[in-house]
Write a structure and sequence with these properties.
The chain is α/β, with parallel strands linked by helices and about 425 residues long. About 30% of the residues lie in helices and about 25% in strands. The chain is built from 13 helices and 20 strands. Strands 3-6-2-1-9-11-12-10 form an 8-stranded mixed sheet, sandwiched between helices. Strands 5-4-7-8 form a 4-stranded mixed sheet. It has a 4-stranded antiparallel sheet with strand order 13-18-20-19, sandwiched between helices. The longest helix has 16 residues. It is globular and about 80 Å long.
Length: about 425
């Protein structure tokens, strides 16, 4: 008997019919001889609706109470799914994140998992139950307060439980049939990938691919937990994410794994920075102290006549105001001239482990963008990724042009997004 952890996203449990469909799939896994642990997200747009409600009541809700509110969505899903499973003749028990032993730090709204102590889950499944766990939430190690894990938290919950329970696989069910070579909402001829390495998936996730998020993949790589990304709306085999191909997987070792894009970032340019040691450090220390994550960084060559330079970096749009405020407070000590903020940008990334040994990939990437009439503002590279920043209005055309230029278009049926979100 194997142990399988399954995670179902909001689109999969969006309504009563969806919950019944998920219950049947869970029961089928149990009937196949597996012990089954299920992690669920909130139904459909429940989390967004709770956020809107909170903003109507209070413009600045406290982190503790905000987390207490948001975790209600997953608790609704887990209880309803347990009821649906019992109607199919199987025993199920639901658990909140804290009951499941998900221990986090004390940072509200974006807590990180410190440890998982799944004693109650283990007892439940050993007694023959299907365990249903609310994703996206845990309890702080200090203070024992309810916390939420931020974007992609349910995926991370599932992988963390799979690691703690020594599961054979973590199945992530979503509304697409797997990981594709590009977002199927943008590129209708995107191809489904049968197997992808943790390394390539990490780069795609960090570059904007929404099927799996970076934290989830990093956790899976650390504990070597194979992930199977599948659709809850079809019975098709999905995409395996692991160190090595699983079982009978036939893997084509492609140069390029895929094209990702991200429209959730903004760009800040610090204009007129004195070109001397310590100035860049002071800028990024201010950003770090404000707990803002940054992505791409570019520093221009200083002008010989002035000894000043410009430093540009990208960051999440949601943290733009916080970063600007932090930098404004340091303007006097650093001595820069001004700040420019631009949230009408997009990042496009080409990812593939094969590119580091194949000359011409970089040239082909830039030629494809040039032929599409797309201007480049920033460039960042790693061994297996090239990323550029362009205007937001150009992103869809740019993604399609690059996807076609590298021969990634499918000759068969168009990719299907069952729930309409790609996640």
């Amino acid at each position: 008997m194997g142990l399988v952890v399954q995670k179902y996203g909001g689109s999969s449990v969006a309504d009563a019919e969806g919950i019944k469909r998920v219950a049947k799939r869970v029961v089928d896994a149990k009937r196949n001889g597996n012990q089954v642990v299920v992690v669920v997200s909130a139904m459909g747009d429940t989390t967004d609706e709770l956020i809107d409600l909170a903003e109507q009541v209070s413009p600045m809700p406290t982190g503790r109470e905000f987390d207490m509110l948001l975790t209600a969505g997953e608790r609704i899903s887990m209880a309803l799914l347990a009821m649906a499973i019992k109607n199919l003749g199987h025993e199920a028990q639901s658990f909140t994140g804290s009951q499941a032993g998900v221990i986090t730090d004390s940072v509200h709204n974006k807590a990180r998992i410190i440890d998982v102590t799944p004693g109650r889950i283990r007892t439940s499944i050993d007694e023959g139950n299907i365990a249903i766990v609310a994703g996206f939430q845990g309890v702080s190690q200090e203070g024992k307060n309810i916390t939420t894990l931020g974007r992609g938290g349910s995926d991370t919950t599932a992988v963390a439980l799979a690691a703690a329970l020594d599961a054979e696989v973590c199945e992530i069910y979503t509304d697409v049939d797997g990981v594709f070579t590009a977002d199927p909402r943008v590129v209708k001829k995107a191809k489904k990938i049968d197997w992808i390495s943790f390394e390539d998936m990490l780069e795609l996730a960090a570059s904007g691919s929404k099927v799996l998020l970076h934290r989830c993949v990093e956790y899976a790589r650390r504990y070597n937990i194979p992930i199977h990304v599948r659709s809850s709306f079809s019975g098709l085999r999905g995409t395996w994410v692991s160190n090595e191909p699983q079982g009978d997987q036939q893997v084509e070792h492609a140069i390029i794994s895929g094209v990702a894009h991200d429209v959730s970032e903004a760009k800040i340019t610090v204009v007129g920075v004195p070109d001397k040691p310590g100035e860049a450090a002071a800028i990024f220390r201010a950003i770090a102290d404000a707990e803002v994550n940054i992505d791409m960084v570019v520093q221009n060559v200083s002008a010989a006549s002035t000894g000043l330079t410009d430093i540009s970096f990208t960051l999440p749009k949601a943290e733009g105001r916080k970063a600007i405020d932090a930098l404004e407070r340091t303007k006097g000590s650093i001595g820069f001239d001004s700040l420019r903020y631009d949230d009408q940008i997009a990042k496009i990334s080409l990812v593939g482990a094969g590119m580091k040994t194949n000359p011409g990939v970089t040239a082909g990437f830039f030629e494809a963008l040039s032929d599409a009439g797309v201007n480049i503002e920033l460039i960042s590279t790693s061994e297996i990724r090239i990323s550029v920043v362009t205007r937001a209005d150009d992103v869809n055309e740019a993604v399609r042009a690059v996807h076609t230029a590298f021969g990634l278009d499918s000759d068969s049926d168009e990719a299907v997004v069952y729930g309409g979100t790609g996640r």
